[in-house]
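Annotators were shown the component list below and the corresponding predicted structure, then asked to write short factual statements about the assembly.
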Amino acid sequence: MATHAGTHDDHDAKPGFAQRWLFATNHKDIGTMYLVFSLIMFFIGGSMAMIIRAELFEPGLQLVQPYFFNEMTTMHALIMIFGAVMPAFVGLANWMVPLMVGAPDMALPRMNNWSFWILPFAFVLLLSTLFMPGGAPAAGWVMYPPLVLQGGDSIAFMIFAIHLMGISSIMGAINIIATILNLRAPGMDLLKMPLFVWTWLITAFLLIAVMPVLAGAVTMLLTDKFFGTSFFNAAGGGDPLLYQHIFWFFGHPEVYIMILPAFGIISEIIPTFSRKPLFGYKPMVYATASIAFLSFTVWAHHMFTVGLPLGGLLFFMYATMLISVPTGVKVFNWVTTMWKGSLTFETPMLFAVAFVILFTIGGFSGVMLALVPADFQYHNTYFVVAHFHYVLVSGAVFGIMAGTYYWIPKWTGHMYSERWGKIHFWNSVIAVNVLFFPQHFLGLAGMPRRIPDYNVAFADWNMVSSIGGFWFGLSQLIFVGNIIYTVYFARQKASARVWEGARGLEWTVPSPAPHHTFEVPPVILPGMLAHDDVSH
Amino acid sequence: MEVKPSIARGSTRRVLIPALTVCAGMFLFGFALVPLYRLVCTHVLGIRVDDAPSAAAVSAVDRARTVTVQLMGHVHSDLRWQFAPEQSQLRVHPGALTVAWFSASNGTAQALTGHAVPSIAPSQAALYFNKVECFCFTDQTLKAGESRRMPVRFAVDPQLPRSISTITLAYTFYENPLAAGTATVAAAPAG
Ligand SMILES: [Cu+2]
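Structure shown to annotators:
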């Protein structure tokens, strides 16, 4: 890639391919590898989604066997969560956190190399199960026993893959914490850090707190399956419900791991294109921290129908609804930042505005699901599928795309095609609603999730949803095309600041960002940071 | 703004050690949830986890009462197996954990997968008939010529209405062609 022809680059000119990428310790190279890896996984997971939507295009079984359909739903989720969304955020953190806090690199560069290079191995393990006798894991990404334990030996591969992904995420998180706490430039106080840095700091704490819990849960599955323990086996004195408690103790914070960095990206983009400082910087930081804290107290809202005592139902219902308060603060602050700003709508801003609107729709259906009596109706229906795809696709994924368009001029030194960016945006934003909005209706009408065939009563909306699905899938080819164009073919050079309203240290280095930046810590001048005019 | 000349590098170790400690602690916490779950349920929430059917059966056996459990085994015509209970009936005390054995054999020259579907008569008794472990929970695959003894572990709830003195537990084994096809289906990635 011709992206690092910077001025500080001469002392390690032209390392070999393996030297540069296999043994990479540079945060920008590793960030690039994470982002490319995540894009590949996005398309692998996406093609599984295409198989799912193709089978659901009409009632009846047309294309795949039910068991293979279950493999697809399971693998789609595992790949999108652990392969696409999380590595994309780690990639963005690798690229941007050192630039934003004025650090020369990540604090632990060699560990950084490890945490990336573990991932391809983990996903080769996971994907190889598709070609094994007995097939890939098919019990859903939540891996509930006893069902998951009835799968073939491929679940051992899935469990080891999850262990590896966990180790990778934990090392990535420790690295980010160490970078933020230790390598900030003088004058970059904690409460002056850009919000993307803040949200990642908090996400990293969530990661080191819950990934080990997931590792423990899947380890117990492994020993139950292969070594005769009975953690979750009723016949041996265990309890399958216990698994759900442990899994969701990880699982709920995990959903914030997948959304908080997107909150950070949006909090960078909206002020830039509103040409105003972020409204309520400190409340944003506190809201993020309280969302993270509360996320540990709500896990059983995934288990309302298992027969919890009334007190438990009420506690988890109220705690869950409480989270909508800090989340509401964030949405309010984004909207207020735009209020009376000099708005322009370049592609990153379009994605950011769509994020605010569509994520809020996902938030509303989340509040509906938090209501115990309503949840008894919605549980395990397509309503749940619609809800979490609104927050994960038009939330997390749109956040990643917004960030990519926003920072790619800084990474490559060239402007992406604004015209094709807008075409990509409008196709994505319409298609994503055609794809997921009808799933609300299907769920309310009672269509269960994870089924390859359904009652003919659900036929129409499923067909609409599938059309939206293919449309959304194809639209993403525009995204890839635009990225390839920007990296290899674009002519229009990007200035250091790139965007008129952009503020922060990352915009003070040239575009493309040289291979080594801030080897001498930057001097932070008044007005240089987006948040230095925050009153204390 | 006054700027210090050197970068404010703290020691990485000061971050690394606490972070790894948190990781190790949370890994152990996952396992600590096993006993904690039991403690919280029993002592805080008042749910008697140990009142699951198996434990209840051991603790509260109603010796004064005897119920007859009749066992039956059928095979659906598509599945060419022999399948029958080892005893046609058992006399059990409500609450007592009991094991009944069935045996199945595959006389054909190919491996076959079947799935047993239970049914309980009279139907009011179904609510009080707790199967703790059963061969009907999973698919059963028998290789060509293979025979197998299969247990069902159950307890009759002492709350069983007085009017019921005989319960019939009947299994029908159906062929599961889908399961037999699983290996081939999954091996071909496009399904
Ligand atoms: Cu949750």
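Statements collected:
1. Chain A is about 65% helix and 0% strand.
2. The longest helix of chain A spans residues 66-101.
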